[in-house]
């Protein structure tokens, strides 16, 4: 992704699911800063965040949609057939693997999901190249 073409900040609604058994999907407003900080709030106008992670600290990322599975490897992103999602699934599901836990996000907007995936990949590569 060309740095000059990247939006300075991405923001949209995602549903987020906790890792504990029985937790349900909850709608949250997500903000991705160009610094790599991904934060979420209950509402866009909320001053305080519910949580945040840094994309540079991810140990893995996968995204499932009806188009297949994208996963982050040491050599970049690859596409493989998805066994987790049904071909007619309306969701685009992200699994962000962090040192502490895995975050599950989803959207029904395939185009928005692809946009975020490209931005995750771009920022992760940019931020980890500096280290």
Automatic annotation (TrEMBL):
Which superkingdom is the protein from?
A: Eukaryota
Q: What InterPro entries does the annotation carry?
A: PH-like_dom_sf, PH_domain
The record's Pfam families line, in alphabetical order, gives: PH
Q: Which residues form the PH domain?
A: 7-125
Its recorded name reads PH domain-containing protein
Q: Which organism is it from?
A: Planoprotostelium fungivorum
């Amino acid at each position: 992704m060309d740095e000059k073409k990247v939006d300075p900040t991405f923001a949209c609604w995602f549903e987020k699911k906790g890792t504990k058994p029985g937790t349900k999907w909850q709608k949250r407003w997500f903000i991705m800063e160009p610094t790599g900080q991904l934060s979420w709030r209950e509402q866009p106008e909320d001053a305080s965040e519910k949580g945040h992670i840094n994309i540079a600290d991810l140990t893995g990322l996968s995204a499932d949609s009806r188009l297949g599975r994208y996963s982050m490897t040491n050599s970049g992103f690859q596409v493989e057939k998805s066994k987790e999602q049904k071909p007619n699934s309306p969701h685009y599901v992200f699994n962000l693997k962090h040192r502490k836990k895995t975050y599950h996000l989803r959207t029904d907007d395939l185009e928005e999901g692809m946009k975020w995936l490209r931005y995750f990949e771009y920022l992760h590569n940019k931020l980890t190249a500096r280290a």
